[in-house]
Write a structure and sequence with these properties.
heterodimer; A: 194 residues; 7 helices; 49% helix; B: 577 residues; mainly alpha
Chain lengths: 194, 577
């Protein structure tokens, strides 16, 4: 028994060193060299300043010049993430969706008069899982395009082209769903005027 | 919808295709044969035996094997508990997190040593990089290796005709770690980093957003941990929202790699089993039973989520299904597929918020947990738990046709059936008792977040998940309180949940393990009867149906009344709470 105990103590120390320190630290070093962009969080720089990450949605504060990301329960925080945990039969969930639909209509209907509540895609009025979902659906982007084109005095064709350029397709054309990256799209729009 | 089914069908084809090659490889590892990694890993392996001072050729009977396993895991529990309690004085703590409270540390240590990875803390707001690496990443490897060692021992017990030996614990664990888990983790981690998953060490960085706000981007050694969290069916995320967080699961590509990694080893182990017992069809029969149950769950969950929730319909939203708590890049098909994969395999990582699933959609992971994690199941645990059900099915089948039950030529006698029944019933019993305690006491109810039947579902799910060593959650359950956040100084209700959950995880992990090793011990050394015309076959469709029936019957009889109170009420009612 004493022998087993000693063996186990050594094993705990050894495995902790190998799998807890050597493996992650060595791997960090290698990834930093081989994939410097991705391993550091796909950061986006503008004018030499860090403006965010391709992977993380940010709050565009209902500024009509920009495409708006999905509603977030965390205020788009990537450092304190949590789920909304609104259940299927929850009164709060229903009120939340109703409020989001009203806000979406208020913002978009001026520029897209035909828009009805029934036509709003689910991603536009429900909270994402991470709170920082970087994407919106193509149909959500198509609705918001009316507003962005009008406010920026851009032809629809230009906006639609930018949307298409910043849409990530399915993996191998099969897995997942296409999504429009809101931050990249908005930065590209800002780049248009220059 | 058609696109959704296509993704799922192709995913399953990939799983079927990878099962034989990985299965053969693992069989060679457990038979101590040489593999292509031997030139690299053999010196490491020898060095490990030398360092810890063991002779890998010393054969162990079931008692010796179990004793070593328990002491080994117990010491790791202690080490992890101490790391969490002394976090504030350790290195790699750029954010200066405090040490975790005793109750959360107890729960977390229990959780990671038992391969559960239930999380009563938010990773990025509670744990330092040191705790994540030296505490948790280690456990992701070691607890997975322990599970796989047990199934290797059980298979040897089934095969061994001449002695009581089940192999050597140290050899099984060491070879699992260095020949299977580490190489696969490196491959998966590389793919994940290439796909955009974080892998850095250092301070969080602040971005100035387009609208001029500060956005703190948490960073850390994520990919290396996520690779083993998926491969080892662990499931504990670096971030609180687990693989929904883009830094942890960046794209449709990383999502595919991660969900594949979850099911890869459990599926391949069925082939390893067939190879080691020398009858490949036996392995496929078990695989078929698992796949059949898996398909049923997937076929229910995807349309259920596509339908949307009662709350959304009441608000006038009917377009695009239930995306509350789901990410656009994953969509409904990949969220549903992930949820079924993670809850059938004892993994427990999530890429969507289970608490926000529809009533029927949320019942699917509960049903998966209710089958005691035998549908592919955890690495090792899934197969040994399924083999327990196989023995029960053989026994029931034997009674029906009036034959002495046999499995692979070995007589299944009273001792084996007693042990198998105990092993099959212990976890369900633990779930019902702990759920009852948590619902009936005010300490337990303090953890509930949702109103109405969803509150019951959250509680039932918490103990289903912890007792099955899964780790996924209806995360409203105590999930709204962070250990280091104001409002939780180890408050009474939370302490109760920490202790009851921790105790459940430990008991429901190690008691079945001991019982399974005892079964292996009972089978080892038994003579093998030749196959005759009266032998009941265990590798044909009839047996697969019988096995599925036994699994469903035990699960359904145990949990149907409990499911009535939660998800079934929610599915049938349009009332809001």
């Amino acid at each position: 028994m004493k022998r087993t105990l000693i063996t186990c103590v050594i094993a705990v120390v050894l495995f902790t060193a190998v799998f807890g320190l050597v493996y992650p630290l060595l791997f960090t070093g290698v990834s930093q060299v081989v994939f410097p962009g991705a391993s550091n969080g796909s950061k986006i720089m503008r004018d030499g300043k860090l403006v965010g990450s391709k992977l993380i949605a940010q709050d565009f504060k209902r500024n009509p010049r920009y495409f708006q990301p999905r509603p977030s329960q965390t205020g788009y925080s990537p450092s304190t993430t949590f789920f909304s945990n609104l259940g299927p039969n929850s009164t709060d969930a229903s009120a939340e969706v109703r409020k989001n639909i009203a806000a979406y209509l208020r913002m978009e209907r001026r520029y897209d008069p035909g828009l009805t509540a029934a036509a709003i895609p689910a991603d536009a009025v429900t909270q994402s899982a991470s709170g920082v979902d970087p994407d919106i659906s193509k149909s959500n982007a198509a609705i918001q395009a009316h507003r962005v084109a009008a406010v920026r005095h851009l032809p629809m064709a230009t906006v639609n082209k930018l949307i298409a350029e910043h849409t990530d397709g399915r993996f191998l054309g099969i897995f997942g769903e296409p999504g429009v990256n809101v931050l990249e799209l908005n930065l590209a729009l800002d780049g248009q005027g220059r | 919808m058609a696109q959704g089914w296509l993704q799922i069908a192709i995913f399953l084809l990939v799983v079927v295709a990878l099962t034989p090659p990985l299965g053969i490889y693992m069989a060679r590892v457990y038979r101590n044969e040489s593999v292509f990694l031997t030139p690299v890993m053999a010196p490491v392996e020898r060095l490990t035996y030398r360092a810890i001072g063991v002779d890998p050729s010393r054969e162990q009977d079931w008692k010796s094997y179990a004793r070593t396993l328990i002491v080994f895991s117990g010491l790791f529990f202690l080490a992890l508990y101490l790391i969490l309690r002394t976090q504030s004085i350790q290195p790699f703590n750029p954010a200066g997190f405090n040490s975790a409270p005793w109750d959360v540390s107890f729960n977390t240590a229990s959780s990671f040593v038992t391969n559960t990875n239930w999380q009563y803390y938010g990773g990025e707001t509670t744990l330092s990089d040191f705790s994540q690496m030296a505490g948790l990443t280690v456990q992701n490897f070691v607890s997975a290796a322990v599970g796989m060692a047990v199934v290797a021992a059980l298979i040897r017990g089934i095969v061994n005709r001449t002695s009581k030996s089940l192999g050597n614990f140290w050899q099984d664990v060491t070879r699992t770690l260095f020949y299977i888990l580490l190489p696969l983790s490196i491959v998966v981690a590389v793919l994940l980093v290439a796909g955009g998953v974080l892998q850095t060490i250092g301070h969080d960085v602040t971005a100035k957003t387009v609208e001029g706000a500060d956005q703190l981007l948490a960073v850390g050694p994520v990919a290396s941990q996520i690779a083993i969290k998926q491969l080892g069916t662990n499931g504990g995320g670096f971030f609180n929202v687990n693989s929904a967080m883009p830094f942890e699961n960046a794209s449709a590509f990383t999502n595919f790699i991660e969900v594949l990694s979850i099911i890869l080893i459990p599926a391949a182990l069925t082939y390893t089993f067939g190879r080691m017992v020398g009858r490949q069809r036996q392995g496929w029969a078990i695989f078929a039973a698992m796949l059949a149950l898996f398909l049923v769950l997937v076929i229910v969950i995807v349309p259920a989520e596509q339908h949307g929730t009662v709350a959304q319909h009441a608000a006038g939203l009917h377009n695009g299904g239930n995306l509350e708590g789901k990410e656009v890049r994953n969509g409904i098909a990949q969220s549903g597929l992930w949820t079924v994969t993670t809850t059938t395999t004892s993994n427990g990582s999530v890429n969507s918020a289970l608490d926000s699933y529809t009533g029927l959609g949320g019942m699917v992971p509960m049903a998966a947990l209710g089958t005691s994690e035998v549908i592919f199941g955890g690495v090792g645990t899934g197969l040994y738990s399924m083999l327990v059900f196989v023995l029960l099915a053989v026994f029931i089948g034997g009674l029906m046709v009036g034959r002495t039950p046999e499995y692979l030529g070995k007589k299944i006698e009273a001792r084996e059936i007693k042990l198998a029944s105990l092993a099959a019933l212990f976890t369900p019993l633990a779930i019902l008792v702990t759920t009852a305690l948590a619902i009936a006491t005010k300490f337990g109810r303090a953890s509930i977040f949702a109103k109405g039947p969803q509150g019951f579902s959250e509680t039932l799910y918490a103990y289903l998940s912890q007792a099955n060593n899964n780790g996924s959650a209806f995360a409203g359950y105590t999930g709204f309180v962070q250990p280091n956040a104001p409002g939780n100084g180890g408050s009474f209700g939370i302490t109760f949940a920490d202790l009851l959950g921790g105790g459940t995880m430990v008991a429901a992990r190690f008691i079945p393990i001991i019982l399974v090793l005892a079964i292996a011990g009972a089978l080892a050394g038994k003579k093998v009867a030749p196959v005759g015309p009266g032998t009941m076959r265990t590798d044909n469709p009839t047996f697969v149906v019988l096995l599925v029936g036994v699994v469903v019957l035990v699960g359904a009889l145990t949990f149907f009344p409990a499911l009535l109170l939660g998800p079934i009420v929610q599915s049938l009612s349009t009332q809001l709470f």
